[in-house]
């Protein structure tokens, strides 16, 4: 016993130097390995001109820094937290487990830490363990609970980053399969402007309209929503949908470039959005705290909370499908026949609160809450074992695991591809419509024009510097360099946008 107590109280003064050096070497080696992997991963992405994914990787590094700071904070404040005492009666309410189930937790700790001599006593024992008992009070948080909370935060952050990356990866793979559709459209080498002059399309006979708007019950609002709900589970985006939405985007935003690479644009937008999805925002941490507060024995909060991402995902998928139905219905309601091919009109009015970006916010919440569900399950399994009281009954465990796997699958292979194409049906386009060097040139020009507008005291000089002629001259060099890479249509559209702003 004395030897055990001596081992528990041994400080670095009486610890063999080879043990200290060995432990430090292992920790530093693992840290440097992870840092080098991230570093060379970033260099590889920059080499492949994947700046959005590189920025997402930097976001992951920020999350790891936040995690490290939380870890450091818990470690430094550990002694002070153990000395915060509260009345004992406050520890008998809002418990995840009943007091009668405490033996299960102790049994697991004995079983788990039996691999480490004195490990169980080290976690439960502390120099400050009797500080609150001497005052006939209870510690705010025990050393064991502090350690488990520390582990939970780490598992949560790693799980969210991992599952978000897998979702974007699998969804991106499916979106890349649409590349064959893009190539086949380009091989047809048709010109929309010529088609508009030489072709007449009967709207109600068009396959896109018949599949999305006409037919039994599809004119009914209720049955239309039901059709959109079911459609998200199979064939959420068909080639006909892709072709029609692509043409609507091009005819609205870049009419002078009929061979605009819509697929490449969608991929760039998705990569840019990934850096927002992979982060753990403050409102997501609020959700974690709220769940920890409501995880009370008998409430089965862990079970009911699983339906939040499930319900949100079904709502988002249904809404995105219904946007396509609305685009078809809008054309069918206005026209019987049109000159040229069928062209839908993108508009923000079809989205919730006229904000297409709200869909990304909801997907962010869905991915985090689903990863939270799965991370919480594996954390309990590893920390307290499967039969722990905090795990809950098997009748509640199996459904939430099935829901978690279903949400992950549906979000990757249906909702994310739907989001990628349908959110382009808004009233405006994103800056990813231009290549990286073009974006930088436009941003530099815009910043210079803004500074001249704010700081320019001479109105004549200001008018000359922002005249359409000077703008066109400034764009000539950029347009010539872009034409070499096939971006002439994009720059032509940029010129139209800039000239309209100046005029």
Automatic annotation (TrEMBL):
It is found in: Membrane. The keyword 4Fe-4S does not apply. It is a multi-pass membrane protein. May be involved in modulation of pathogen defense and leaf cell death. It comes from Solanum pennellii (Tomato). It comes from the Eukaryota. Keywords: Calmodulin-binding, Membrane, Pathogenesis-related protein, Plant defense, Transmembrane, Transmembrane helix. InterPro entries: Mlo. Residues 482-503 are annotated as: Disordered. The C-terminus contains a calmodulin-binding domain, which binds calmodulin in a calcium-dependent fashion. The keyword Repressor does not apply. This is MLO-like protein. Residues 494-503 have a biased composition (Polar residues). Belongs to the MLO family. Its main location: membrane. The chain crosses the membrane at residues 18-38, 64-82, 149-170, 277-296, 358-381, 401-422.
């Amino acid at each position: 016993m004395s030897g055990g107590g001596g081992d528990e109280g041994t400080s670095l003064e009486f610890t063999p130097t080879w043990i200290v050096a060995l432990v430090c070497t292992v920790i530093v080696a693992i840290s440097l390995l992870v840092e080098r992997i991230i570093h060379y991963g970033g260099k590889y992405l920059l080499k492949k001109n994947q700046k959005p994914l590189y920025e997402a990787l930097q976001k992951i590094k920020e999350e790891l820094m936040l995690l490290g700071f939380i870890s450091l904070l818990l470690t430094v404040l550990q002694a002070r937290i153990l000395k915060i005492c509260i009345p004992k009666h406050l520890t008998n309410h809002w418990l995840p487990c009943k007091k009668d189930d405490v033996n299960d937790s102790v049994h697991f700790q004995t079983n788990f830490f039996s691999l480490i001599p004195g490990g169980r006593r080290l976690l439960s024992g502390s120099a400050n363990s009797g500080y609150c008992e001497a005052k006939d009070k209870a510690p705010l948080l025990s050393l064991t609970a502090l350690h488990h909370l520390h582990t939970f935060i780490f598992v949560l952050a790693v799980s969210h980053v991992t599952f978000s990356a897998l979702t974007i990866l699998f969804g991106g793979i499916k979106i890349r399969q649409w590349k064959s559709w893009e190539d086949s459209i380009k091989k047809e080498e048709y010109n929309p402007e010529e088609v508009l002059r030489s072709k007449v399309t009967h709207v109600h006979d068009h396959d896109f309209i018949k599949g999305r708007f006409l037919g039994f019950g599809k004119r009914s609002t209720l049955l239309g929503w039901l059709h959109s709900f079911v459609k998200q589970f199979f064939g959420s985006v068909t080639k006909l949908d892709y072709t029609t939405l692509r043409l609507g985007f091009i005819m609205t935003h870049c009419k002078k470039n009929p061979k605009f690479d819509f697929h490449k644009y969608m991929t760039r937008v998705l990569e840019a959005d990934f850096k927002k999805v992979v982060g753990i925002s403050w409102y997501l941490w609020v959700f974690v705290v709220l769940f920890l507060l409501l995880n009370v024995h008998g409430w089965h909060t862990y079970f009911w909370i699983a339906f939040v991402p499930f319900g949100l995902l079904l709502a988002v998928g249904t809404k995105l499908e219904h946007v396509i139905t609305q685009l078809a219905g809008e054309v069918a309601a206005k026209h019987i026949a049109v000159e040229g091919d069928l062209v839908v009109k993108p508009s923000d009015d079809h989205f919730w609160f006229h904000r297409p970006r709200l869909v990304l916010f909801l997907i962010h919440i869905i991915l985090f809450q689903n990863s939270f569900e799965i991370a919480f399950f594996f954390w309990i399994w590893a920390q307290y074992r499967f039969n722990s009281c905090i795990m809950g009954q098997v009748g509640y465990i199996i459904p939430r695991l099935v829901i978690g796997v279903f949400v992950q699958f549906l979000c990757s292979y249906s909702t994310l591809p739907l989001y990628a194409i349908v959110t382009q049906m808004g009233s405006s386009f994103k800056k990813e419509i231009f290549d990286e060097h073009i974006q930088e040139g436009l941003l530099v020009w815009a910043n210079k024009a803004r500074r001249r507008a704010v700081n320019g005291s001479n109105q004549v000089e200001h008018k000359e510097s922002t005249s359409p002629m000077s703008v066109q001259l400034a764009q000539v060099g950029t347009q010539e360099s872009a034409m070499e890479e096939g971006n002439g249509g994009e720059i032509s559209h940029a010129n139209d946008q800039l000239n309209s702003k100046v005029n």
